[in-house]
Amino acid sequence: MKVIACCVVSAIAWSAVASVHAAEGDKVIRIFRDVVEPAQQVAYEAAVKNYNKCLAQHGFKYSWLAWNHETGNVYMYSYAAGPYSWADFDSMHETSKACDDSWRSEANPHLQGEVSVFLVEVPELSHPSKDKDAKPALINVTAFTLKSANGSDDAFKDAVKKITAAADKSNWSGHYITYRLRGGDKDMPDYLVISPYKNWAAYGAGANPPVWKMLEGVDGKPAADAVHKSLDDVVQDVNSHVDSYSAELTYTPPGK
């Protein structure tokens, strides 16, 4: 895991093209995503548990959540640490070194690949649940990649701001947190919007009303159609998957 393992919360991922420049005071999340050989799942999970034990034995004080991919490529695991400060990640890098050999010798042999990226929350594009400490059983992750045309990022943010304003005004039942990606490669999306669900029934039911009906009810159909079109005009690609929370692979520091 090179630095640490981190978990991804259920999200809708929306991409943008501009680079991110977060202030030092910003709280950020680091995500790792592991792809495992199908026949190696049991050995890989045992290696993660041993790595977590090693960290606990060395007093590693930073926690992260683990998620199993339930749809899409189900041989993938996601981990997210944070939100922490940038300085915290320097400390994490140093204090996890004692367990680097454990990860490299026990977990790496079972991996097809691993990617990592930082997420910076965008509050003005988010409609989070009031229960911020809850660990949802499921999360929905949808990736939106924006076109490279000038103005795509601004158009995307303007559209999501309008959706968020309507969601706040109507006390909408659909909840999400939008994150902008930092440090990803060319194949990574630029925004993640995180949507939690307590179970499959809640996921299947979705928000009531659906997002576009909600926006129409607040701002009227012509305005809702205009926002919908503006997103369609700048989005290049969309994909999504659902993850389930894994208590067994989550790391919690001793005493917490």
Task: Name its key features.
single chain; 256 residues; alpha+beta; Alpha-Beta Plaits; eight-stranded antiparallel barrel; 32% helix; disordered N terminus
Give a short synopsis of this structure.
32% of the residues lie in helices and 29% in strands. By secondary structure, it is an alpha+beta fold.
How would you describe what is shown here?
With 256 residues, the protein is an alpha+beta fold. The chain has one domain (28-251): Alpha-Beta Plaits (2-Layer Sandwich). 32% of the residues lie in helices and 29% in strands. It is built from seven helices and eight strands. It has an eight-stranded antiparallel barrel, surrounded by four helices. Strand 6 and strand 7 (191-197) form a beta hairpin. The longest helix is centred in the middle third of the chain and has 19 residues, at 152-170. The radius of gyration is 19 Å and the shape is elongated. Mean pLDDT is 87; it is low at 1-25.
